[in-house]
């Protein structure tokens, strides 16, 4: 059974239709990269899968939870879907460890000891075990983003969404975040990522989706998408984007 | 004998608002003058002046307006002046305003980017010229919204001078309430008049602030 | 000038001043505590409830902020008993203090809540928190931390304003000053002394609130950049 199933999803902002009937399936353990120009709807699609944006029609199913236009059952779905944002969005009033422990404690209701062990475990996973007591603002952007990843992982999600997570980072800091994500992929995490890092997508993603004008324009194994693009739009995108 | 709250009582209260307004205007003018000097002293390059002004602001903002009123009232009479209460009231309100306006305007002067000082120094402006032509014109724009906002505080605080016998709004309400004993009607009327004076000023202050922020952002 | 300061007659009445000081402290302490709680509660309610509630809260805030504390005090002191509710002067004073501070605190906390960026709320929601959980754990603490200085100033102002309660013969510090004044006729000395006591109270309260802020919101350098952490 697929972890994520997107069927004919339409999304409008006012009069502008941003998603014009998206179909997408993500199997367990798959890593899917979504590429495309800004405005192609790729970030919106990711936000819809987490229910941060409401869809007008169509259906999204994530590990058994269904989102439709009614927007019910969101919280159960979000327990299984982690999302990491471009702007990290750590909670500035909580220390790193507390940032991670908060949601397991109040949402899942796990014991403090359990939350603590999850926080230590996930921090170690992103290579920041020693920063447990740091304040978010005292971390570099790359470290903050890795904490944000750990915060999502502590909820033990079935799938992780990454929304241009390196776009706000200085070039020398993107490497550590990408390495963290690559390690997650190797450990079998199901991942869906919107990214501008073409080399990373090509190397790590099993499947790459090219979105254009609110549609899935072309998709397939990453090697083929990057190696022999079929449509002129993708060829042009790769030509201009891959300098 | 208990009287009714009739039109004449209402008009009595309404007419007393002129003293509230007069007191506010006088306190604003006098307090503004003094507050301006405080703000200049507070941003002076002479350390003793800065300390003095900071002390004045700390003092005024650290004591009740009621105490300023009593000190003015008894202090003036001790100094040998036999003056009507309205003068003591004006003096106390002006002292009060000077402490708050001084601080508001200090902030406005310091909100002007320091490069403006540097740039004007480089053009050989003297210190007074810098204030006159470069700094104050910019500070005024920043100062207007909070100054208008403070006006509301001033109007409201004039109510306490009723205790030394100035028959402004609050005192008029008290007199009428003693005669009619209809506290909700009487003080409701008094409150409504204050509100009618203060609310438009509050709204104006908020709008000016919004406009200032919009201009700064853009 | 023939006037000579004579503080002895005033200092002989220190016990009376201490009584007044104690009542001022009680009025201020209890008033600030409940006023702040009321403000937080209403700001929360305003954020979570629908339009009618918001309108109601806003009206309360505007009415209180645009009328004098003295008039509010008089309405409660003279008005409430005509409804058949017995109310001592101290109770009237305390009610007026809480209602007055509550309105200012509502406005301040509301501004703090609105300064928390939308992306913070989204981060909370995406972790499957309910709206209430997001509000409680993600929004409220940074909001309060941000507006703590403004709240503190308002608390100090309120403490100073308790002096107005002497108008309805609540025997707090300034009322006791008036008592001593009418006994000793050393008006200027009494009020200088009491003014200095208020000044000391204000300074102490500011220090106390600053310390409390450091304990309650120990966020390192974090909150200054709350607004900055938004991405583009």
TrEMBL record, chain A:
Species classification: Bacteria, Pseudomonadati, Pseudomonadota, Alphaproteobacteria, Acetobacterales
GO cellular component annotations of the record: plasma membrane
Keyword Transport: yes
SMART domains on file: AAA
Alphabetized InterPro entries for the sequence: AAA+_ATPase (IPR003593), ABC_ATPase_HisP-typ (IPR030679), ABC_transporter-like_ATP-bd (IPR003439), ABC_transporter-like_CS (IPR017871), MetN_ABC_transporter-like (IPR050086), P-loop_NTPase (IPR027417)
KW Membrane (keyword) present: yes
PANTHER family reported for this sequence: AMINO ACID IMPORT ATP-BINDING PROTEIN (PTHR43166), GLUTAMATE_ASPARTATE IMPORT ATP-BINDING PROTEIN GLTL (PTHR43166:SF9)
Domain of life the protein comes from: Bacteria
Organism: Roseicella aquatilis
Gene3D superfamilies: P-loop containing nucleotide triphosphate hydrolases
Main location: membrane
Subcellular location: Cell membrane
Listed name of the protein: Amino acid ABC transporter ATP-binding protein
Entries under SUPFAM superfamilies matching the protein: P-loop containing nucleoside triphosphate hydrolases
Keywords recorded for this protein, A-Z: Amino-acid transport, ATP-binding, Cell membrane, Membrane, Nucleotide-binding, Transport
Membrane topology category: Peripheral membrane protein
Entry's family note: Belongs to the ABC transporter superfamily.
One Gene Ontology term of the molecular function aspect: ATP hydrolysis activity
Domain ABC transporter, first and last residues per copy: 4-238
Automatic annotation (TrEMBL), chain B:
Cellular component annotations (GO), alphabetically ordered: ATP-binding cassette (ABC) transporter complex
Keywords: Cell membrane, Membrane, Transmembrane, Transmembrane helix, Transport
GO biological process terms held by the UniProt record: amino acid transport
GO molecular function, one term: transmembrane transporter activity
Source organism, top-level taxon: Bacteria
Transmembrane segments: 21-41, 53-76, 83-101, 186-205
Lipid bilayer topology: Multi-pass membrane protein
ABC transmembrane type-1 domain boundaries: 17-205
CDD domains membership: TM_PBP2
Keyword Nucleotidyltransferase: no
Matching Pfam families: BPD_transp_1
UniProt protein name: Amino acid ABC transporter permease
Species of origin: Roseicella aquatilis
TrEMBL record, chain C:
Transmembrane segments: 20-48, 69-87, 190-217
Start and end residues of each ABC transmembrane type-1 domain: 21-209
Compartments reported by the entry: Cell inner membrane; Cell membrane
A cellular component term, taken from the record's GO annotations: ATP-binding cassette (ABC) transporter complex
One Gene Ontology term from the biological process aspect of the record: amino acid transport
Keyword Transport assigned: yes
Record-linked Pfam families: BPD_transp_1
Topology in the lipid bilayer: Multi-pass membrane protein
Gene Ontology molecular function: transmembrane transporter activity
Family, similarity comment: Belongs to the binding-protein-dependent transport system permease family. HisMQ subfamily.
Name of the protein in question: Amino acid ABC transporter permease
Protein source organism: Roseicella aquatilis
Taxonomic placement: Bacteria, Pseudomonadati, Pseudomonadota, Alphaproteobacteria, Acetobacterales
């Amino acid at each position: 059974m697929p972890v994520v199933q997107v069927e004919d999803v339409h999304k409008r902002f006012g009069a502008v239709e941003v998603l014009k009937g998206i179909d997408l399936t993500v199997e367990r353990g798959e890593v899917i990269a979504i590429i495309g120009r800004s405005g192609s709807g790729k970030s919106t699609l990711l936000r819809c899968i987490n229910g941060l944006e409401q869809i007008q029609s169509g259906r999204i199913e994530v590990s058994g939870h269904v989102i439709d236009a009614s927007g019910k059952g969101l919280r159960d779905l979000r327990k299984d879907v982690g999302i990491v944002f471009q702007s990290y969005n750590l909670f500035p009033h909580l220390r790193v460890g507390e940032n991670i422990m908060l949601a397991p404690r109040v949402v899942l209701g796990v014991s403090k000891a359990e939350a603590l062990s999850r926080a230590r475990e996930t921090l170690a996973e992103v290579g920041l075990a020693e920063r447990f007591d740091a304040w978010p603002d005292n971390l570099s952007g790359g470290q903050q983003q890795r904490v944000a990843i750990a915060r999502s992982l502590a909820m033990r999600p079935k799938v992780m969404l990454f929304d241009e997570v390196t776009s706000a980072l200085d070039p020398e800091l993107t490497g550590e975040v990408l390495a963290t994500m690559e390690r997650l992929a190797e450990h079998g995490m199901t991942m869906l990522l919107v990214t501008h890092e073409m080399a990373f997508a090509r190397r790590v993603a099993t499947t790459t989706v090219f979105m254009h004008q609110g549609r899935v324009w072309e998709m397939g194994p990453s090697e083929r998408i990057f190696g022999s693009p079929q449509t002129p739009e993708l060829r042009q995108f790769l030509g201009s984007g891959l300098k | 004998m208990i009287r009714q709250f009739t039109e004449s009582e209402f008009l009595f209260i309404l007419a007393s608002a002129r003293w509230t307004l007069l007191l506010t205007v006088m306190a604003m003018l006098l307090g503004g003058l003094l507050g301006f000097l405080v703000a200049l002293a507070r941003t002076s390059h002479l350390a003793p002046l800065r300390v003095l002004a900071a002390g004045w602001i700390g003092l005024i903002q650290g004591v009740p307006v009621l105490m300023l009123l009593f000190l003015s009232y008894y202090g003036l009479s001790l100094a040998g002046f036999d003056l009507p209460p309205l003068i003591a009231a004006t003096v106390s309100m002006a002292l009060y305003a000077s402490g708050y306006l001084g601080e508001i305007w200090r902030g406005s002067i310091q909100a002007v980017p320091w490069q403006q000082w540097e740039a004007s120094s480089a053009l050989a402006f003297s210190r007074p010229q810098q204030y006159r032509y470069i700094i104050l014109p910019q500070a005024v724009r920043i100062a207007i919204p909070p100054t208008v906002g403070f006006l509301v505080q001033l109007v409201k605080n004039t109510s306490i001078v009723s205790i030394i016998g100035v028959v402004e709004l609050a005192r008029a309400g008290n007199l009428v309430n003693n005669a009619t004993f209809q506290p909700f009607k009487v003080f409701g009327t008094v409150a409504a008049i204050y509100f009618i004076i203060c609310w438009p000023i509050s709204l104006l202050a908020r709008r000016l602030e919004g406009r200032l922020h919009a201009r700064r952002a853009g | 000038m023939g006037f000579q300061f004579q503080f002895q007659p005033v200092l002989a009445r220190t016990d009376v001043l201490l009584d007044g000081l104690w009542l001022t402290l009680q009025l201020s302490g209890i008033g600030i505590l409940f006023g702040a709680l009321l403000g937080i509660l209403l700001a929360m309610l305003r954020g979570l409830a629908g339009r009618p509630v918001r309108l109601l809260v806003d009206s309360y805030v505007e009415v209180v902020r645009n009328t004098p504390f003295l008039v509010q005090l008089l309405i409660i002191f003279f008005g409430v008993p005509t409804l058949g509710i017995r109310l001592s002067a101290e109770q009237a004073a305390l009610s007026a203090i809480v209602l007055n501070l509550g309105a200012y605190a509502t406005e301040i906390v509301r501004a703090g809540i609105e300064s928390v960026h939308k992306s913070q709320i989204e981060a909370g929601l995406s972790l499957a928190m309910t709206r209430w959980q997001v509000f409680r754990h993600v929004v409220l603490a940074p909001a309060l931390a941000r507006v703590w200085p403004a709240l503190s100033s308002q608390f100090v102002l309120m403490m100073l304003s308790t002096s107005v309660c002497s108008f309805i013969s609540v025997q707090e510090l300034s009322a006791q000053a008036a008592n001593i004044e009418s006994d000793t006729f050393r008006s200027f000395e009494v009020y200088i002394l009491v003014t200095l006591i208020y000044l000391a109270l204000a300074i102490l309260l500011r220090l106390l609130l600053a310390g409390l802020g450091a304990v309650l919101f120990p966020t390192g350098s974090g909150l200054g950049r709350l607004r900055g952490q938004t991405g583009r």
